[in-house]
């Protein structure tokens, strides 16, 4: 009955993409926010961004929605909209202050994730982007388990170039394989920094073991692209603005656009193959 309820609610969601990383601080929420903005740039597409980072919900701040509240209607919770075609849901909207700590055990977190999937009235959605916390435990198992009643296109895994990050990302890839979650590919974030004045490139996080490229070759996973560091990304996130719109000529924006295009192509291909089978 529960699976049927989730299936009924999410029937109108065409593509679901999870954004994962075993490591904290690699820019996963930033990537989720910019992926949502990039997809919603096409006004014919309806995009939803679900933040299941229960203890560290940063999506409301990044999307310029801090202080917003969730509204209830006869058909369930209404998402908070950034644009007409970009809706957001996060535990951050349920807190009385952005500084409130969420001190919950696993079952309560899992219950809220289920509630987000079952009770939020997304309507017709082309892309549902799910921003997850670091790790491979409660929230990840819950979202995969609940969404297995419907359909997940796959996961995008975010890393930085250094071995400390790659070590945890290998665990995340292993997790995806164990729970049979398809991997769309890996994004190497903070991949070098080009000085805007002298144009010299510096490796802020040196890829001592070959970075994401070598890891992807070893594990037979696609590398979707490398995003260079740009201080403007952090500033845009703090202001709740889209970096892609604020710095359209930045090398990081061009990299993001290529990655987003590859994700779209992957999802469309999946959809085409499913229709062929049916």
From TrEMBL:
Any single GO CC term annotated in Swiss-Prot or TrEMBL for this entry: cytosol
Span of domain AAA+ ATPase: 14-185
Tagged with keyword Repeat: no
GO molecular function: 4 iron, 4 sulfur cluster binding; ATP binding; ATP-dependent FeS chaperone activity; metal ion binding
GO BP terms: iron-sulfur cluster assembly
InterPro entries: AAA+_ATPase, Mrp-like_CS, Mrp/NBP35_ATP-bd, P-loop_NTPase, YlxH/NBP35
Keyword tags: 4Fe-4S, ATP-binding, Cytoplasm, Iron, Iron-sulfur, Metal-binding, Nucleotide-binding
Compartment(s) where it occurs, according to its Swiss-Prot or TrEMBL record: Cytoplasm; Nucleus
SUPFAM superfamilies, per database record: P-loop containing nucleoside triphosphate hydrolases
Major subcellular location class: cytoplasm
Residues spanning the signal sequence: none
Pfam families in the record: ParA
UniProt xrefs under SMART domains: AAA
Functional note: Component of the cytosolic iron-sulfur (Fe/S) protein assembly (CIA) machinery. Required for maturation of extramitochondrial Fe-S proteins. The NUBP1-NUBP2 heterotetramer forms a Fe-S scaffold complex, mediating the de novo assembly of an Fe-S cluster and its transfer to target apoproteins. Implicated in the regulation of centrosome duplication. Negatively regulates cilium formation and structure.
Stated name of the protein: NUBP1 factor
Species name: Oreocharis arfaki
Gene this chain is encoded by: Nubp1
